[in-house]
């Protein structure tokens, strides 16, 4: 939520990404197994995601995230993955796709086009924060001036190319709000956009 809930009841749009040191979410082959969070990072992510009421995805990111729908929070062996599955399953999802016919998960609707005005209305009417997932969709939202925060988990890895985590055709001023280092070498950076 925003800093003063008494005066502003709208949700913030937050872009979170796991990225390599050189700025890629996946390598040139689409591989991102190097970015799997350990229990310490995953637990921290869970706490950040808990207040999210709605996730916005493009088709590819949605297909990756569908895994969490099939994971049973009651039977999985890992407490942190059980926790994240519960958080993810409880939130609404909006998928922007021209090709996806029907959603494969609960609490999900499909929109054919990314409409910045629709996202503005969603933000204005939301009592919870909204997460936007996937660098392509987030890039559209950043260029439209919709993203309020960027939360980056920088992994100690260099990929040398692939799918960039941030748009490379836009100048955006950022203000560092928070940072944290983890034992694995991952660094969390939280920025306010448009500072």
> What portion of the residues fall into strands of 2 or more residues?
25-35%
Determine the mean pLDDT: 93
Q: Report the count of strand segments.
A: 10
Largest sheet composition:
8 strands, mixed
Q: Which runs of at least 5 residues are low in confidence (pLDDT < 50)?
A: 1-7
- Spatial order of strands in the largest sheet: 5-4-3-6-1-7-10-9
Q: Percent helix among the residues?
A: 25-40%
Report on this model:
The protein is of the alpha/beta class. The protein has 6 helices and 10 strands; from the N terminus they run ββαβαααββαβαββββ. It has an 8-stranded mixed sheet with strand order 5-4-3-6-1-7-10-9, sandwiched between helices. Strands 2-8 form a two-stranded antiparallel sheet. β9 and β10 form a beta hairpin. α1 packs parallel to α4. The protein is globular, with a radius of gyration of 16 Å. The two termini are 17 Å apart.
Provide a short characterization of the protein structure.
The protein has 195 residues and is an alpha/beta fold.
Task: Give short descriptive properties of this protein.
195 residues; alpha/beta; 8-stranded mixed sheet; two-stranded antiparallel sheet; 27% helix; 29% strand; globular; disordered N terminus
Helices and strands in order, then pairings?
Elements: E1 13-20, E2 24-26, H1 39-49, E3 52-58, H2 59-65, H3 67-70, H4 79-90, E4 92-96, E5 108-111, H5 116-125, E6 129-133, H6 135-143, E7 149-155, E8 163-164, E9 174-181, E10 187-193
Helix pairs in contact: 1-4
